[in-house]
Amino acid sequence: MYNKDQLKEKAKKAKDKKGAIGPDINLDEFDQAPVPHSYLAEEDLCDLPQEEQERLIMSGLDVTEKERGGTYLQKDTSVIHCHSRQDGIEVIPIKKALEQYDWVKEYYWKLLAVDTDKYTAAAELALHDGYVIRALPGSKSIYPIQACLYLDKDGLQQNVHNLIIAEEDSELHIITGCATSPHLKRGAHVGISEFFVKKNAKLSFTMIHNWAEDMVVRPRSVAQVEEGGLFINNYICMKPVRSLQMYPTTHLVGKDAVARFYSIIVGSPGSEYDLGGRIFLKHPGNRAEIVARTISNGGKIIARGHLIGEVPGIKAHLECRGLILNGGLIHAIPELEGLADGVEMSHEAAVGKIAQEEIAYLMSRGLTEDEATSTIVRGFLSVDIPGLPPQLKAEIDKAIEESDKDVM
Amino acid sequence: MLKIDDLQVTLEDKEILKHIDLEIHPGETHVLFGPNGSGKTSLLMTIMGYSQYNVVAGKIIFKGKDITHMSIDERARMGIGMSYQRPPTINGLKTRQMVKLCAGHEMDENDLAKQVNFEQFLDRDVNAGFSGGEIKRSELLQLMAQKPDLMLFDEPESGVDMENISLVGKTIASLLQKNLLTIENKTRMQAKLERTKMGLIITHTGYILEYVAADKGQVLYDGILSCTNNPREILDCIEESGYEECVRCIIKTN
Predict the structure, then answer these.
(1) A291 vs chain B: nearest CA distance in angstroms?
(2) How confident is the model over A93-125, as pLDDT tens digits?
(3) What is the C-alpha to C-alpha distance for residues A154 and A149, in angstroms, rounded to an integer?
(4) Fold of the domain built from segment(s) B2-85+155-253
(5) Nearest CA to CA, how far is A295 from chain B (Å)?
């Protein structure tokens, strides 16, 4: 099934193919040449420069690995650390995995076509690396696995491909950050992710992104959830970025499979975000939920959501709420497609401002107007995500807390 | 002390409070009666400082300071607090956090919540899907944490079920230092003399009088405050003759 030459051939044909949505990026403006960095042993992680550590921490990567089940850290194009601390959970750089393990080829480009657009093509033609994280059948992650794709070299285009596999009856939690070094101005990130949630497995994937102002970001991801499986996908981006466009797709391919997407976005001036998710409900008992909270304080945000109910006995809900605080634009595009009798699908979308009545209420409890406003904004951004481990909930809360100064 | 002097207020250019005079001394609780739409809530909101209530004449003095043009939060920090009838929902803000914000410092909100039978609501968003009675208990819990010196209650007993009415009544009495029995090692007289909290309670039913020994009652009718009297007597009069009698009173005194 896996044929390297065939993949390359297909990719080459698509290398100038524009993305279906979102502004087109001229990838020729970026450098794709590998940037070597030396590998760090576990004990050396703490020796990373303080400012780098701080950037990593903001994206949920803790170099002390306290309450983490394993780590994958890639700087520019090189893997600088990768290991699992828990039996039954594997963390392997994808290049090494493709060389050493035949089973990996069963998953590589399986859900996503290599010739989808120029970004998928680039990820095949000049793959830098990426991670394979797999929970073996029945194994449960005690602590989340952390992964971070760090960009240090100005003007670099980072191409990564990730495979995440939760085998039958397993439970896997991943926190993954993308961050840029404080001095980086400009760069591109192309990230391919394929998720496999097998029978009765549970996978939560929490992404916290901290980009630089002139970054262009094009993630491409597809997930497949089998019978009784649960996939939770969280995306948090509170920092400016030139252009971010992604439209992850999930296929529920077995009965009672469930997918939940949550995204929390703050759009800064000069930033453009086009994101959302699409979930296909193909079997009875499928459940899907897409929840988005967006705030624009001068940025442009397009929040999409598309639920497709193909059979009776499915339930799906889409909720998209936006606040415009300081100019900017929020365009909510919720879509429901029911293709059979007996589907239950709903959506609510709202774009507005903070209610003066709520501010006054908090002020009458002694808060200043600014304190009241930021309390309401924090509340707006905080979403209850059932099934998320406490460490990850804490990371999301922290990101929201830190966003305060950017929002105000 | 709260002293309101010849206060005239408009809301969207409509005159809603006319020449209001009111004095609440430390330790005193007043009860405000009046039919729907007579301006009771407007008076409370004006004292709290809601800017849509436009003070066109008169003054509000609190603790010796003219607060007529102070912002809501300045008044709150001076010691004015309010129990709302229909407060807004704050999505994503847990009642637990709200109680801490009211207190202004770290505190054990569980203990406080227990007193108003509200522990099971601490992890719910503020006022989200609360019933009428739950809102009232949530408001009281917030005031218990905030500890204002002047408390404005907008119909604190409306929507409260029979099971909770005495809890709500007793809690208000305790907030206003009207429950003399709970103060330890003090004679009743001592406790009464040391009482400082002030209250202004809007009520339709008068149930609250069963629990709170209010000092004075007043009737607000069509924006005019009248009939300072024993609150029981006013209630009895309203029950017998309706607010019609108050109108006659107003005509007579003017």
Answers:
(1) 14
(2) 999 999 999 999 999 999 999 999 999 999 999
(3) 15
(4) Rossmann fold (3.40.50)
(5) 15
